Amino acid sequence: MRSLDPPPPERSAELRRRFAEEVRSERPDLTTLCLLVGAEGDGALDEAGMDAAQIELDRLAGLLPYRPGGPRAWARALGELLGERCGFHGCAADYQRLESSLLHKVLVRRRGLPILLSVVWMEVARRAGAPVYGVALPGHFVVGFGTPGQQGHERVLADPFDGGRVLTGADAELLVLGATGAPLHPSMLTPATPLEVVARILNNIRAWAAVRPERSDVALWAVELSLLLPSHPARLRYERAQLLVQRGDFLRGAEELDAYADVVAAVDRPAAERVREQARSARAMLN
What does the sequence similarity comment in the record state about its family (predicted)? Predict the structure, then answer.
């Protein structure tokens, strides 16, 4: 399998500038953000390729029937088009491929992780005027149709990873039970915002790279994009520092460790001192 080459530094800097601008906009665009993530992961994705992905989503939306009915009819229409006619689905092997987390690759391969397939479903449905939203169930992202939060309105869940299969309440319960061992809680059905979707995609990429030490480059750009999100855990700075040291950038890694220690010191002085000791060890590697 050919590894994806990163973009050159100038291109990467421009992508990150646009990513930071988009995540801070009043209404962040999910497709744009996913394609910027894809371009950071695949240097071959240029502006023409990003435009082509947008055009493909438009094309797919144009194949949907005009206002087929309520939420269940929308879910079935998306499943028939994307799952059956176009063959979008997932399998266990897709978890082993970085391409499964990059939207432009998923549109070509028609395979991907649940969350990326859900992005395809959502963005195609949204273009066609469907009442659609993402649902970040623990361990398995799905798509909702309908108007959440309004009593008496029909809401339907579909699983794009399974070709768009419409889920019963029992199906959703089993998905959550299998992932967490705990029952489904109504709060788990809250619509996911675009930034929450992108944060979860980046988490998946970091998890993919974490078990592949030779791909610390992927882990680093995924962490650095995550740090551009308006809301992110402070521990990401520690993760970035560790990656810099791992990749031989000892001075910058040590500086990041010291900066993180300053944050931690306010709540846990012993932990902060341990981090500072790591910073000293990193600087010692320069000798």
Answer: Belongs to the UPF0162 family.
Domain coverage including residue 161: 9-194
User: Do 125 and 244 fall within a single domain?
Assistant: no
Task: Tell me what the mean pLDDT of segment 182-193 comes to.
Answer: 88
Q: Which of 135, 168, 194 is the last residue of a domain?
A: 194
Distance CA 205, CA 218 (A): 8
User: Structure pTM?
Assistant: 0.93
Summarize the confidence of residues 218-223 as an average pLDDT: 97
Same domain, yes or no: 143 and 14? yes
Query: CA distances (Å), 209 to each of 59, 109, 124, 206, 212, in order?
Result: 33, 21, 29, 5, 5
Sign of CA dihedral 105, 106, 109, 111: positive
Summarised one tens digit per residue, pLDDT across range 100-114 is: 999 999 999 999 999
